[in-house]
Amino acid sequence: MTIPFFDGHNDTLLRLLEAEGADRERAFMEGGKDGHIDLPRARTAGMAGGFFAMFPPPLKTGLAKVSGGAALEPNLPPELAWGDAMASTSGMASILLRLERAGALAVCRNAGELRAAMARDTLAAIFHIEGAEAIDTDFRSLELLYAAGLRSIGITWSRANAFGTGVPFRHNADPDIGPGLSDAGKELVRVCNQMGVMIDLSHLNAAGFRDVAAISSHPLVATHSNVHAISPHARNLVDWQLAAIAESKGIVGLNFATGFLRPDGKFDADTEIEVMVRHVDALVAALGEDGVALGSDFDGAMVPAVIGDVTGVPRLLQALLDKGYGQDLVHKIALENWVSMIAGVIG
Ligand code: ZN
Q: Looking at the domain 5-345, which fold is it?
């Protein structure tokens, strides 16, 4: 029997936006071999839904404003201007909303809508932005995005913006790199708390993480991050961060990116499922059975060949069962923990 699952992070909308010339919505609905997620493969796999990220990509034209973030850390791309981020975000949002109109998925604005979509076997999407560059510091575009369905915000991707600073893609590095949230970033946390918008800590640096932990009234959430003690990448969570998430009764979604799974930090598809299970073991030990979920990074990262694409998720869930995880715990990790967190934070 296929175990239904809910995924904490995919970059499928960016993959579709960047697809050349195609009818992007039809490509998703009819499916094929491109990328990791499309509708037929999602349904085959048992994917009940997930956070659909809108990641505004760095400009390829070289027009981006170079600022403190780039000077601070050569691996960080330059900051992205609001208008450029809004343009790509509008493109990705249009794909999500057109897919909803076509009946391919439901954009869920609360846990009730999420449960209703899953009950009628419709793919349930949470509208997420990865990096808050499309939000101005007066939070005017936040109103627009919220009205379109936005319910989850990663304050930064791996670059600096008006709100905070992200971690570089660097192995054998601590996330304690760069300054904390700006005043606007701190205000963004308060505004999101009031509006019922989830704050995502994945990609944020240590000082920013501490600021969110101090300000936010919500449980701490990292949608797609792993355990630094196993894979010492700046993108992964060190012990004190896991302890802070546990104390807040928060949650971490397991990232399938091989570079964040492997102890050697290599992006290498020849990566055993066993290392994924090791991260889950460590996350359960640190966060308890309610604090662990999935956050694949499908369509945004190289995943183990044994997973391949969304249809490989059942192999991970089977590996957890084989390891001795009970059915109840596997169901929690696969789906129920995300649904409970969304109910508690978004409403
Ligand atoms: Zn990411």
A: TIM Barrel (3.20.20)
